[in-house]
Design brief:
The complex is a heterotrimer of chains A (about 550), B (about 400) and C (about 525). By secondary structure, chain B is of the alpha+beta class. Helix content of chain B is about 20%, strand content about 35%. Chain C is built from 16 helices and 20 strands. In chain C, the strands form five sheets. In chain C, strands 8-7-6-16-17-18-15-19 form an eight-stranded mixed beta sheet, with helices on both faces. A five-stranded parallel beta sheet of chain C has the order 10-2-1-14-20, with helices on one face. The chains are: A alpha/beta (about 550), B alpha+beta (about 400), C alpha/beta (about 525).
């Protein structure tokens, strides 16, 4: 007899969001988590006494405001504080600042190229057009283009009309935008290399692609779609670290009598007569439920949790060919004080912003070449932040926490698996790069957590440590995510669903896949849909 | 070249700031592009009437100034703007719009034929990229000089007298849209008979170094002619009366429009007189030829609305209560004592057949009220005095 | 005006231009072709190497030809002769383990039965997808967002075609179309040499490595068409491609086309209302025309023939953004006797010989190219046409023609002082593959992408008149709104490889353009 209506495997933010909606609908839901803490990659961890690390994901950009509002996350303790801007340190000892103030930002671009400063207006408009097009899709289930079901046909027609409504010029721009490389896309607007390098960064974060790889341009959207309190383009810190997001979602789940079990790693999903009926835990316990939802990535789910015989050979093949590429590492650093960055000048508001230490497209492309060849980048693209300047509660007074996201690091080195020595070398590469721009940085380091993609996989469970649970390229997006025929959150056996970032609309701390999956599950259970649609922006 | 630490000051002061800040007794400032300028100085209505009665002085420095110079300058501007630029003779100014490839207006501005093979474009928005992209294949050099050149509007019936008193010879002989270069304290200073108020008036371009002394001298000489500083709020009233559009208010700047259908062509802004389809290729021509063939979607009109409640942001309906448009700018005109507005009309409105009724919301004692007022289309500017055109200009 | 009275001037006498001209002349138009060089055929035309040797121009093999064009023009009757057909691909590596690919069969280099099967399966799936691509090739691409019924219909049939392939193939299409050949080949097989050889077809002449997304499109592109209806099969034309260009010329002349050689077009003229009036040659001669068809690349067409001043800035901007980075060079060697390649028997010498030992190798080599440098171990497609055609070289002597990939147009150090070094390097590399070859070289020549630009007038020396990538494909080729062979100037058309369906000796672009012109100008 099953005690639960649904079991959700993995207490990442998408799993929790999915569970919260199912519970809110009145279902009896259990969430299972292998670690002794919840959150998956959205966690705040005290790995050095007094310091809280957002040790995986580190900023809140795409968390759907509809979900935030609908699940009352504010009541459950979530506060996202806006921060803005970015800064690129140049080899010449200058900086290129992406200031939040429009005129300031334009003048800063103008220091590098006056023409580019003007071009930025057209560039922002074109990106905003794409954001407007894509945003409503985030909270919808992709249609199956090969299906003739009325539901799919209607959705396809809706989509087609929406695309046609853009007008001829914008339709072409849209196709180009989704297929070009970020470097070539930027080259159509800008002439200065520093400007291009600074803008291209968001096109390569988390992906196993370089700035010249076609299909990276649209990843720019991630940067521009980020919104906090409805204002487009701004990013935010979750107060108390990214764990606050998971905690708030868990709060919403528990408010509706949801149950969370930690230290409960699932070993196997039980399938009977073509239907998933329950799970077996590592400790041998068996738990039963009518519906099983996996928040894990497709590879981990289908290759590790299912008995091979339970799945079609074709599915296995599709899963094996699904591209999940570990391409990023992470450093979390406890600092005894605030590092100085002389190039930044006095009282620069960009100390709060993302810092990068790579100033040309060629340098970024070469960083990618290293990754291709099984090495971590000798001259990496580091997305560096000091969250404690915004949220002082994450470190002891006067001390700081620095989060460094590093692109690129391979899941497996050309020399073999990552060793402790490799990890040390990787950390040194990153710390040396930052040290080049901050003379007192190295002396301030109290503790540093260095995470290779392999470490991220081992701890969080993300295959290859890929932060998006699968590359976000055209062949794995929308109705192709995770693979054709399975983009509607249903798995190959009845009663089984996927709700993680491997599904539409993909990675980032969005909570949209979890909510979208909940909508389909409720549909199958013939329950009223309680998952909100995207708010209209027009 | 800007210093790296320019972030310490996000908003600039104009070269006139030392004086304008003294005169701005309301301490009422507004941000215009990179600069802060007075929104009002002492009383908006008196500032407005100074322009209609004596002379009002506006700090136009934030206006974006571009310079186009070179052998191909004429050919270049003729390809850039929609109107026939060969008709703007040396030392003449022309109002112009320019379009994107879809024939949608990017911005409007005034083009100064400053010297042989040299044009200046004064506009609301920066156009450096557009100008540069357009320059492929042309022998021209393009610069933006906004921060290097100070600009004043000297507007009103006594403005010629003041400039004359300052020693600018034969200023009264300038015809509307004429330019004259003078030497002032060893610097070249350019005076054009142009403005944004629909009255007699001049615009003065000068280097920053002489800006303050010019300002001081003008106010000293102008005292007997009742010279007053005026802010942007008064200017907005003046330009609506004068029948002048404001980009970003009366139409969406095509470069910033995100939603389909948000932009307008020159035809849809009532600016067909600025489009010359008989001249060789220009940016947007193909689309405009097509639009001319197919017909436009929008009609831009000036309205005279019954009652005295300004119709800001109003929806417009026809007699069948179908929405036919929206108001883009509205005010009660102090000079014409009329309730005036600009509006963009669309289907199912039919010229000559449909009524136009404005849904106006207004507040009295914090209470919101709604009235439906009928409006009629006006073709001439609401304010259009003969002295605006008279040459020689009236002197007092 | 009737068709017969309409005068058409075609700029350039490359194969697409000649195809287009011939179709138009057959339809009753009066057609004149203007070619700046002293012979027709553009990049296919045969060239002299020294006094005694002849080599194919830039292109040396026919592969994905449009059979319908060949038949319509009756090229066989006009002298087209194949010296060799259905060539096998012989892929070399340094160890002398050759891999031989013949259609969907593969042999050599320790290939296992399993891998052979994998290749068959791959080929089957790819040919099916190529078939879909090909179904779009013979028509002008529709305009999107247009309310024109023809466009709507054409778009709908495109969608229908995709669905009629069946769910699996449609899924394949949606999944593969924008990805890279590296991932796709890795899904199918583990045989590195085989993968390297196949990936070579995807990257040849394109600015991409096997790991660059879009390289599946280019792979499929070369699988379309095919001489004798065999997808992707290669043929060699007798007289060092001369019989092909000759037959095109004959067919054109027969149809009534006037061909003017050594007639370099300086500019085209049109009224302010964009009506074509004619063209002017560099020598000052003027020629009246009602219609002009440009067979040269889109950037040259608009930048040189029309001139940016006479176009709207938006058009100039778009056209200048067409990516045209040439990165293939052409190597010609005259040899005093037959070379001996390691691992290749003598009777295999006449086949298409490829050097591309693995995808990793290709990617590494491309990395040099990306930064404007040259690797010292370049991928090549080698043919020895004199094996099949004795007229090309004196008795016992031979000519070798090789496309050398990953030679950048923009070489960081500049071409001036590097060309002879690169030529020597190529010869040394070949010497490594065919020991002793160096000693046989009598004459040699290297055409870098910069030389190809100079010689054939193609911007960037880009063989395909514009890189073939998703954003420069179908209705986006060469740029949006001009994919219908038309241009902003009413009777100026484009018929070259810069237009849909793109590069390769297909003739389809020329045919499609002719069809569109007939429709619009009759």
């Amino acid at each position: 007899m099953s005690k639960y209506d649904a079991i959700v495997i993995g207490a990442g933010h998408n799993g929790l969001c999915n569970a919260a909606y199912l519970a809110k609908s009145g279902l009896k839901v259990l969430v299972l988590e292998k670690n002794d803490y919840i959150g998956g990659a959205a966690v705040s961890r005290e790995l050095e006494e007094g310091w809280l690390y957002s040790n995986c994901s580190y900023v809140c950009s795409l968390l759907r405001p509809e979900i935030y509002r609908d699940l009352n996350l504010q009541k459950h303790g979530l506060q996202v504080i806006a921060y803005g801007g970015s800064v690129t340190f140049t080899k010449k000892g200058d900086i290129f600042g992406g200031y939040s103030d429009h005129d300031l930002s334009r003048r800063e671009i103008g220091r590098y190229s006056k023409k580019d400063a003007d071009a930025y207006v057209r560039f922002s408009r074109d990106i905003s057009k794409q954001c407007r097009f894509i945003k409503p899709l985030l909270m919808r289930t992709p249609p199956d283009p090969t299906s003739f079901k009325p539901k799919d046909l209607n959705e396809l027609i809706w989509l087609f009309k929406r695309l046609y409504g853009l007008g001829e010029e914008t339709i072409y721009e849209t196709i180009r935008f989704y297929t070009m490389s970020v470097a070539e896309y930027l080259e159509e607007y800008f002439e200065n290399d520093v400007v291009k390098a600074a803008l291209s960064g968001s096109g390569i974060i988390g992906t196993g692609l370089g700035p010249y790889s076609p299909g990276t341009a649209y990843v720019l959207l991630h940067h521009y779609m980020g919104e906090v309190d409805g204002s487009i383009g701004s990013w935010g810190f979750a107060r108390g670290g990214m764990g606050s997001v998971s905690n708030a979602l868990a709060g919403a789940f528990q408010e509706h009598d949801g149950e969370i079990m930690t230290n409960a790693e699932v070993k196997q999903i039980l399938v009977k007569n073509g239907r998933s009926v329950g799970v077996v835990l590592e400790n041998g316990d068996e738990l039963y439920a009518k519906n099983i939802v996996s928040n894990l990535d497709v590879k981990r789910t289908y290759l590790k949790l299912f008995e091979h015989g339970d799945l079609d050979e074709k599915i296995i093949n599709q899963v094996e060919n699904f591209k999940i590429r570990g391409s990023s590492g992470k450093l979390n650093i406890a600092l005894d004080g605030l590092p100085e960055f002389p190039a930044m000048g006095k009282n620069n508001p960009l100390m709060h912003a993302d810092m990068h230490f790579i100033d040309s497209l060629e340098r970024i492309e070469r960083a990618f070449d290293d990754w291709k060849n099984g090495r971590w980048s000798a001259d990496p693209y580091c997305d560096t932040l000091i969250p404690t300047l915004t949220d002082p509660t994450m470190a002891p007074p006067g001390k700081h926490y620095m989060s460094v996201f590093v692109q690129y690091a391979p899941p497996k080195l050309a020399t073999g698996e990552w060793t402790d020595k490799d990890r040390e070398g990787f950390g040194k590469t990153v710390i040396d790069q930052i040290g080049e721009y901050s003379p007192n940085f190295k002396d301030l380091i109290v503790h540093a957590e260095i995470r290779s993609p392999q470490d991220i996989e081992n701890e969080v469970g993300l295959t290859e440590g890929n932060i998006f649970q699968g590359e976000l390229t055209m062949d794995q997006m929308f109705f192709n995510r995770p693979f054709p025929g399975y983009s509607q959150f249903r798995g190959p056996v009845k009663g089984f669903y996927m709700c993680g970032s491997s599904t539409h609309p993909g990675g980032g701390v969005m909570a949209a896949p979890g909510a979208n999956a909940a909508r389909e599950i409720l549909f199958d259970l013939k329950r009223e849909n309680i998952v909100p649609e995207a708010e209209n922006d027009d | 070249m800007l210093q790296q630490n320019h972030y310490l000051k996000s908003v600039y002061e104009t070269p006139f700031h030392e004086r304008t800040s003294e005169l701005n007794i309301l301490n009422d400032w507004t941000r215009w592009k990179d600069y802060t300028v007075p929104n009002s100085y002492f009383r908006v209505d008196l500032e407005y009437f100074a322009a209609r009665n004596s002379t009002a002085v506006f700090d136009y420095t934030p206006m974006i100034k571009h310079r186009i110079k070179g052998k191909d300058a004429l050919e270049y501007v003729n390809r850039f703007f929609t109107r026939d630029m060969t008709k703007i003779g040396l030392h003449r100014v022309g109002y112009a719009v320019w379009c994107d490839e879809q024939g949608q207006v990017i911005d409007d501005g005034t083009v100064f034929h400053m010297r042989e093979n040299e044009y200046w474009l004064l506009s609301a928005e920066r156009q450096l990229e557009n100008l540069a992209v357009s320059a492929i294949g042309f022998d021209v050099e393009i610069d933006e000089l906004t921060d290097d050149v100070a600009a004043l509007g000297v507007q009103g019936p006594t403005s010629a007298s003041i400039l004359k008193a300052m020693g600018f010879q034969e200023i009264e002989m300038l015809k509307p849209f004429d330019i004259k270069h003078y030497s002032y304290h060893g610097e070249e200073i350019t005076i054009s008979r142009t403005g944004f108020t629909g009255d007699l008036g001049y615009e003065v371009l000068m280097s920053n170094s002489v800006a303050l002394s010019f300002y001081n001298e003008m106010f000293a000489k102008g005292e007997i002619y009742n010279i007053k500083p005026a802010g942007l709020e008064a200017l907005d009233l003046l330009r609506i009366e004068a029948g002048l559009l404001q980009p970003g208010v009366d139409f969406m700047i095509a470069e910033e429009a995100i939603r389909p259908g948000a932009t307008r062509s020159p035809y849809e802004l009532g600016l067909s007189w600025l489009v010359d389809l008989s001249k060789p290729v220009f940016n947007g021509k193909a689309a405009l030829v097509e639009e001319k063939k197919r017909g436009s979607k929008y009609t831009f009109v000036k309205l005279n609305i019954n009652g005295n409640k300004p119709a800001s942001g109003s929806y417009l309906y026809n007699q069948a209560n179908k929405k036919i448009g929206t108001v883009t700018s509205a005010m009660f005109s102090p000079s014409a004592k009329a309730n005036i507005a600009y509006a963009s009309l669309h289907e199912p409105w039919k010229k000559g057949k449909d009524k136009i009724i404005a849904e106006i919301y207004y507040q009295k004692d914090l209470e919101w009220n709604r009235v439906m007022e009928e409006a009629t289309i006006v073709t001439k500017p609401f304010f259009d005095p003969d002295r605006k055109r008279a040459t020689p200009a009236e002197l007092y | 005006m009737t068709k017969k009275n309409k005068k058409i001037a075609v700029v350039g006498a490359g194969h697409n231009a000649l195809v287009c001209a011939t179709y138009l002349a057959k339809a009753g138009f009066s057609v004149d072709v203007f070619e700046s060089r002293s012979q027709v055929g553009g990049m296919i035309g045969k060239r002299k190497l020294g006094e005694e040797y002849s080599v194919p121009g830039a292109a040396h093999l026919l592969s994905h030809v449009d059979e319908s064009v060949f038949k319509k023009l009756n090229l066989k009757k006009h002298g087209l002769e194949y010296s060799a057909q259905d060539l096998k691909t012989v892929s070399l590596n340094r160890d002398g383990n050759a891999l031989i690919i013949d259609g969907d069969e593969v042999d050599g280099d320790d290939i296992t039965m399993k891998e052979k099967k994998e290749f068959k399966e791959l080929n089957k799936r790819m040919v099916k997808l190529a078939g879909f691509l090909e179904s779009t090739y013979g028509k002008k691409p529709p305009r999107l967002g247009s309310d024109d019924r023809g466009d709507m219909f054409s778009l709908a049939s495109l969608g229908l075609n995709a669905r009629m392939m069946g769910a699996d193939s449609m899924s394949d299409l949606l999944k593969f179309i924008a990805v890279n050949i590296y991932d796709v080949l890795n899904e199918f097989t583990d045989h590195n040499h085989l993968k390297g050889t196949l990936a070579f077809d995807a990257i040849l002449g394109n600015h991409m490595g096997p790991r660059t997304n879009n390289s599946v499109i280019t792979y499929l592109h070369q699988l379309t068409g095919g001489a004798n209806g065999k997808n992707g099969s290669h043929s060699m034309v007798s007289d060092g491609t001369g019989s092909f260009t000759k037959s095109l010329e004959e067919a054109a002349k027969k149809a009534g086309v006037n061909i003017h050689l050594n007639a370099s077009v300086k500019s085209i003229s049109f009224t302010d209302d964009l009506e074509i009036t004619g063209l002017t040659l560099k020598n000052g001669d003027a020629f009246d025309a009602d219609i002009i068809v440009s067979g040269i690349d889109p950037r040259s067409t608009f930048n040189c023939l029309v001139g940016p001043k006479k176009l709207e800035a938006g058009v100039v901007h778009k056209v200048n953004n067409v990516r045209m980075r040439g990165n293939a060079a052409k190597l010609h060697l005259a040899l005093s006797s037959k070379p001996k390649f390691k691992g290749i028997s003598e009777d295999q010498l006449g086949q298409r010989i490829v050097y591309s030992p693995s995808m990793e190798y290709l990617e590494r080599t491309f990395d040099f190219n990306k930064y404007g440098q040259i690797s010292d171990d370049l991928p090549m497609e080698i043919t020895i046409p004199s094996i099949h055609d004795k007229t090309l070289a004196p008795k016992g002597h031979h000519v070798l023609s090789a496309i050398v990939n990953y030679v950048p147009y923009h070489l960081k150090e500049g071409w001036e002082n590097s060309k002879s070094r690169v030529l020597d390097q190529c010869i040394n590399q070949l010497d490594g593959l065919a020991p002793g070859l160096k000693g046989l070289v009598v004459q040699s020549e290297l055409l870098t992408p910069a030389d190809i630009e100079e010689e054939y007038g193609i911007t960037g020396g880009q063989w395909h008149h514009g890189e073939l990538t998703f954003d420069q494909f179908l209705m986006l080729r060469p740029v949006p709104k001009m994919a219908q062979y038309s241009s902003p100037i009413s009777s100026l058309y484009m018929c070259g490889a810069g237009s849909h369906p793109g590069g390769g000796i297909m003739g389809t672009a020329g045919k499609n353009a002719a069809m569109e012109i007939m429709k619009r100008e009759s």
